[in-house]
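Summary of Year 1 activities. Much of the first year was spent building the evaluation harness for sequence design. The harness presents a backbone, in tokenized form, and records the residue chosen at every position. We chose the following record to illustrate the format because it has been used consistently in internal testing since the harness was completed.
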């Protein structure tokens, strides 16, 4: 499908070309990435080892942390290494693989956030029917469908990327491969492909955001009839979900629902949803969730006991 073999590799300009700033980028994003790995892997291990966290909500949180880890890993390690390199080249095939993985786990995160919103809606608005409507088995089927849907979406992105003819400039003014910066390098009219990109990625982001936020508006409206304790607990859970949704969807919608034009702030906005959100998600979910914090304490105390026994 690749129409032109003139370009076999791309040069990534990264966030900056200034040597001093590149060192700052290296140190900052290494800390960001290590923090993301630690936070999300801690949630994954805690949910897998704790009997108290076996409800569908934590089943979905497990997959959110997993998708966050993989999503960030598709970009951060290369970006960190590139910050120390003089010339940052990426082969054509590696670039296409990065596009696929980035969109696969980005889309998976969107679907998981939708499922978490549905889970909270049923739990709060239809509590008596919760166990019959939502179960770990049902969640398992829905997550499997999310994986398939993500694969379809990212395959469509690759199809669009491979249909672009590259015959000259190969410098990507970004720190990772994505369709928006690749469109600028194509030596043909990209209007139709950009339209398909907006109708694919842009529509998924926008429609999903509207669906998720609508479900939380219905949930918050229904809280009027709940007890003070029930309101407090539901608000604590929902507010953390709304923060995550806003942080992730806001920058994504800005990036994928517009014509093929680039702005100076694009790279920093991309940093926010590719590295910032995966770092903040574990903090938001653990700091605002007593059950997760208690399970982490028990996990830590077990580790200390086992270390003492040695």
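For this record, the design step produced the sequence shown next.
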């Amino acid at each position: 499908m690749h129409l032109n073999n003139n370009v076999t590799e791309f040069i990534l300009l990264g966030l900056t070309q200034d040597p001093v700033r590149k060192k700052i980028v290296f140190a900052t994003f290494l800390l960001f990435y290590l923090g993301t790995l630690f936070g999300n892997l801690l949630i994954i291990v805690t949910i897998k080892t704790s009997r108290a966290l076996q409800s569908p909500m934590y089943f979905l949180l497990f997959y959110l942390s997993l998708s966050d880890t993989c999503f960030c890993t598709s970009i951060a390690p290369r970006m960190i290494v590139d910050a120390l390199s003089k010339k940052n080249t990426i082969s054509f095939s590696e670039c296409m693989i990065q596009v696929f993985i980035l969109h696969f786990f980005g889309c998976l995160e969107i679907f998981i956030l939708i499922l978490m919103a549905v889970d909270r809606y049923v739990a709060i608005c239809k509590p008596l029917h919760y166990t019959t409507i939502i179960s770990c088995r049902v969640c398992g089927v829905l997550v499997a469908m999310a994986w398939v849907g993500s694969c379809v979406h990212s395959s469509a992105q690759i199809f669009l990327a491979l249909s672009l003819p590259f015959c000259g400039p190969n410098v990507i003014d970004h720190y990772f491969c994505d369709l928006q910066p690749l469109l600028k390098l194509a030596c043909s009219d990209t209007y139709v492909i950009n339209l398909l990109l907006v109708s694919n990625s842009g529509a998924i982001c926008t429609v999903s955001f509207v669906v998720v936020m609508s479900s939380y508006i219905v949930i918050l409206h229904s809280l009027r009839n709940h007890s003070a304790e029930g309101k407090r607990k539901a608000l604590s859970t929902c507010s953390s979900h709304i923060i995550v949704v806003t942080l992730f969807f806001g920058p994504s919608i800005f990036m994928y629902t517009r014509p093929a034009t680039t702005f100076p702030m694009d790279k920093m906005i991309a940093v926010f949803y590719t590295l910032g959100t995966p770092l903040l998600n574990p903090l938001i979910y653990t700091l605002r969730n007593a059950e997760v914090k208690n399970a982490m304490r028990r996990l830590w105390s077990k580790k200390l006991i086992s270390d003492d026994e040695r």
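The chain is about 75% helix and 5% strand. Quantitative recovery figures across the full test set are reported in Table 2.
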